[in-house]
Amino acid sequence: MRRVPVWYRHGVAQSPKRSPGKPGRARPARVSQADALRQTPARFRGKAWLLLTVVPFGLTTWAAFAYIGIRARRPRWLAWAAVYAALLAAYLVLDTTAGQSNAASAVAAVLALLAWIGGGIHAFAVSDDAARRIQGRTDPALDAARTRIERRAEGRRLLARQPALAKEIGLGRPDVSGADDYGLVDVNHASAAALAKLPGITDEVVRQIADRRTQAGGFSSVEDLGLVLDLPPGMVEQIRDTAIFIPD
Fold first, then answer.
1. Cα(224)–Cα(218) distance, rounded to whole angstroms?
2. Which pTM value belongs to this model?
3. Engineering a disulfide at 87: which of 29, 60, 115, 171 sits with its beta carbon 3.0 to 4.6 angstroms away?
């Protein structure tokens, strides 16, 4: 029997889009010219520090690496800032004695080129990584998303290790005043209003959960919930990170 390749995403089988005339190749996503123009200023602002390695002829290469090292919290780049600062200091010292020694003049020239050309190439090589790290640490939306993810993971660990304490603090109960829900929803006990906060859940599914959990004595997992209610795989995956199932 001939095998047909199938791609799975979020538990749903999908066939890849194919370009006409080129079977087997996925069609690349297109970026409009307007989107590209909007993204260009943002990319430039994220790499404006590169000017420190070009305009002053290497005199402030150390400052460029100090900047990205501090902003991105990368000790490695701070170490390189120290290296380029040392090269600059050595160059300045030798340059003052260049008139008295040809050897000192030659070494000073080599050091200047290392700080300028070498430092510039080095800075351009790490510029994409630096922009991503700096943007990731300064984007409030990303910071908030990371906090929510870490908070939910902390709540799950608490439930696994100390279930009695988890119930006491109201884990997964955003509908209870004063409860610490950790950003989770207890499908077995939360109110209909709290269940409606689960991502991708419809009002009809909320009603089904409220009815069936009483009859079945609660659900044991997101897979159990999806099986009992015959939920589509995409909906099951959407609620996986937020839903918890505390037994009675």
1. 10
2. 0.49
3. 115
Four-point Cα dihedral 113, 114, 120, 124, nearest 10 = 150
In angstroms, the Cα distances linking 52 to 63, 119, 177, 238 are 7, 10, 54, 46
Amino acid in position 197: K
- Cite the DSSP H helix spans in 139-179: 140-161, 163-169
pLDDT of residue 113: 87
Distance, in Å, from the CA atom of 186 to the CA atom of 172, rounded to the nearest integer, reads 4
* Spatial contact of 91 and 83, defined as CB atoms under 8 Å apart: no
Distances (CA, A) of 107 to 103, 168, 172: 6, 71, 67
3-state secondary structure 17-84: CEECCEEEEECCCCCCHHHHHHHHHHHHHHCHHHHHHCCCCCCCHHHHHHHHHHHHCCHHHHHHHHHH
